[in-house]
Amino acid sequence: MVDCKLFDQRLQGQPHLKVYPRKQHCISRKNISPNALKVMARLREAGYQGYLVGGAVRDLLLGGHPKDFDVATDATPEQVHALFRNSRLIGRRFRIVHVTFGREVIEVTTFRGHHDSDPDGDDATPDSHRSRQSDKGLLLRDNVYGTLEEDAVRRDLTVNALYYDAANFTVYDHVHGMRDLRKQSVCIIGDPEQRYREDPVRMLRVARFAAKLDFGIDRGTARAIPDCAHLLGEIPPARLFDEFLKLFMSGYAERTMDKLLELDLLRYLFPESDHAMRRNPQAMALVRAAMHSTDQRIQSGKPVTPAFLLAALLWPVVRELWQQLQTRGEPPAAALHSAGQQVIQATLRQISIPRRFSLPMREIWEFQPRLQRQRKPQEMIQNRRFRAAYDFLLLREAAGEDAGGSGAWWTEQQELPEHQNLPIIHGTDEDEHADRGRRRRRPPRKRRPAQNA
Ligand code: ATP
Ligand code: MG
User: Fold this and answer.
1) Whose CA is nearest to atom 11 of ligand 1?
2) Ligand 1 pocket: which of 142, 155, 201 to mutate (most atoms <8 Å of CB)?
3) Is 263 within a domain?
4) Where does residue 405 fall: left (phi above 0), alpha (psi -120 to 50 degrees), or beta otherwise?
5) What does pTM read for this prediction?
6) Is 116 a catalytic residue?
7) Is residue 449 part of a domain?
8) 203 and 309 in a common domain
9) pLDDT category, 379, cuts 50, 70, 90?
10) Same domain, 143 and 75
């Protein structure tokens, strides 16, 4: 049992703290992962504190179903690790512990302290227990441990800094998170400019949560963004890619992109795409359609890949360069190959794209002219990249690109029994030869290209 008297004593001297007992909130233990409850109970039994925190508390208070459950504690990562055989220490920038139960991972973080209280001198504090800031205020490492209150004000947004104690069913709020949940407002904790300087990715997180929760953005939180946005240029490309996945692969891609455009942040991830989308409505329509389709697939539990979304985001840039290279006399296939390569190289300076995604992206692009030639249907349909490339072709047409009506042609192809493929429309002699003996049908009526969606 938690010692409430002891906790009450700890509360004294914390004027900002608001305590919400069970009657004043809607969190029910039955909506909390039993494994998270187990972790918190074990921490308490060992004499430590253990609270549910972050997105899980926020989503439970909003009546949703959290996708994961994070726990905050006053035990150090080493102490947590010693308590759970099924755990491992991870991270350097933030040392945390993952406690695994089959496929579920409960992330346990130790309360962070104020980094300005970090001793700078050459004393006995091990380096791994310190925080470090660059001369521009960027937090390089953050392993100074502290109290719950210190931990709360170190978090990014007020609605992400609520703590739930499963022992006494109480929510603790140091930062007016409950008020902002009611106001449906995304508000950064503390001085926005200083918090963005410490970690510019927080600006992307503001956009992400405003989109995901469909909340407004607090005035001060939004106002500091234009002056700090350029700091995103200092974030390592690999971290930006991790953030890209959270921004666009969580089921709210379309709304998130609108927010990023509104806050003028997209250009720090994909500068060329941002430029193309702002001046070309067709590019905007294509990217928006890809995001919409990704969101829908996630909602209906279908698999999604970042390769498809990235292919769409960069296609307007690739296409333009492809056309330029052809004007300079390069043959179409070579020009497309080279355009894809150049655009990816340029993008990697900003945001990393692992090869397992950049390869399929290029295949999707390079499939496009092949699909437009409407040849070798059986062979093409069997290619493992066909489905993504075909979906991509449909999106391009829906966005108003003229692909000669080939989307509809491939749709019909797939509806035919395997041995009944339509005859070639634009085939060469060689193809005619290869196709001799196939059953022929009357060629389909050529369709007008789809109008702008
Ligand atoms: P989601 O449900 O989308 O995962 P989340 O709130 O759990 O949302 P995470 O990215 O998983 O978001 O982060 C967990 C928690 O860690 C956040 O709720 C927030 O309190 C804290 N946090 C994450 N990133 C930062 C950051 N850059 N600066 C400060 N606090 C952060
Ligand atoms: Mg989370």
Assistant:
1) 55
2) 155
3) no
4) left
5) 0.85
6) no
7) no
8) no
9) confident
10) yes
